[in-house]
Every structure is written in structure tokens, then in C-alpha cells.
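About this split. The held-out portion is used to measure sequence recovery: a designer receives only the C-alpha cells and must propose an amino acid at every position. Recovery is the fraction of positions where the proposal matches the reference. Here is one held-out target exactly as it appears in the evaluation file.
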């Protein structure tokens, strides 16, 4: 086999396909053409990149969802490594009621403001209750995943409403 038509091993970067054409007839000093064709990313990779871009772009709007996912993972780890941490988290359930009483005494509110404060205190009370129960029994025990979802939806919705109006 002639050295002109034999392919030579050439190292290329990962993900790049190199096509080498043999030397053309005619001038012997002419160098062969090298055509570099990059690999096309798969559809799954394109979809993952697009989803990641959207999540990064709207990361502030999705803050409650990120916090809820982080709390879910943390309570699962607490359940596995220290189930007794539920006893430490249990007193935190009373904190939002104390906050509401303090705020009403310090800056009394009526109407919509009082409604938002009460709704926020109720949501945080339920979230602390869920965290204590999830740390003690596991986040996937009984109705806890449904309660987690039912807490996430109003938190995310309220976050989006408050961010648009202020």
C-alpha cells in the first residue's frame, strides 16, 4: 500500500471527528487537507443544557423550590444519622406564633397585612412541623411527601406574587 493512501494515526481531542483525505496527485510538496467535524451533541444533552439554562436564568424566582428540595434532603440525612434531631426541631414549631404576636404588638396591622402575616406564620409553622416529623420518621413516611408538596405550592405561589407586586 502506498504511503499516500495509508491513514496515519493522529491524536485528536475527545468529541472531535477528524477526516483525513489522502494527498492529491500532482504536486508532491502539497500538504493533505484536514477537515475537522465536531460531534453533534445528543438530543438529551441539548435538552439538559436548555433546562439548566432556564433554571439558572430564573433561579431567584425558584428560590422556595430550591429551599424545599434542600430541606427535604437535609431531613432525610437527619433521619438516617440522628433521628433524635426531631426532638431538637420540635420547639421551633412555636416560633412563628411568637413572631406573629411580637409583630402585632410592635407594629399593629389590620386587613391585608394582617392576613399576609397570619398566612406566613401558618405556613412556617406547618413547615417546621413537617421538618420535625420528617427528621423523626423520614421524609417519605406516610403523608409527609404530600404535605411537603402542599407546603411547597403556596410558598412558591406566594413568592411569585410578592416578587411581582413589590
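Reference sequence for scoring:
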Amino acid at each position: 500500500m502506498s504511503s499516500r493512501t495509508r491513514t496515519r494515526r493522529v491524536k485528536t481531542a475527545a468529541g472531535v471527528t477528524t477526516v483525513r483525505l489522502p494527498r492529491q496527485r500532482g504536486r508532491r510538496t502539497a500538504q493533505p487537507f484536514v477537515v475537522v467535524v465536531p460531534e453533534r451533541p445528543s438530543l438529551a444533552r441539548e435538552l439538559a443544557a436548555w433546562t439548566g439554562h432556564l433554571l439558572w436564568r430564573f433561579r431567584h424566582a425558584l428560590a422556595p423550590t430550591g429551599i424545599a428540595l434542600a430541606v427535604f434532603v437535609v431531613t432525610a440525612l437527619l433521619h438516617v444519622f440522628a433521628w433524635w434531631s426531631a426532638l431538637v426541631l420540635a420547639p421551633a414549631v412555636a416560633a412563628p406564633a411568637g413572631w406573629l404576636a411580637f409583630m402585632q404588638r410592635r407594629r399593629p396591622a389590620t386587613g391585608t397585612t394582617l392576613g399576609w402575616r397570619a398566612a406566613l406564620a401558618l405556613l412556617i409553622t406547618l413547615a417546621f412541623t413537617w421538618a420535625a416529623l420528617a427528621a423523626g420518621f423520614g421524609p417519605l413516611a406516610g403523608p409527609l411527601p404530600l404535605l411537603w408538596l402542599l407546603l411547597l405550592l403556596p410558598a412558591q405561589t406566594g413568592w411569585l406574587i410578592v416578587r411581582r407586586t413589590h
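Annotator remark: The two ends are 77 Å apart (CA to CA).
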